[in-house]
Predict the structure.
Amino acid sequence: MNKNVKFDKLRELLIKENSWPMVYMYKFIIPADNHKIALVESKFSDEAIILHKESSNGKYFSITVKEVMLDADSVIAKYEEMEGIEGLMAF
């Protein structure tokens, strides 16, 4: 699927319902693997607020990131950047 098409609905929603720049909240679920968790964190700036929560069985981590984004396209670009991380689920 073309990346531009994949995120079209999200882009439209972000543009319609938000004023930019704004603090955007990303939510991810990832297998409990320190390397993968560090890889997710490395994609965000030092100013980002990053919270972790381990699942009850310890197999997964929830990662919530709040960061100032300049526009809808910067939000989409971040999701596209994350697509290469194996096992990552974005919400």
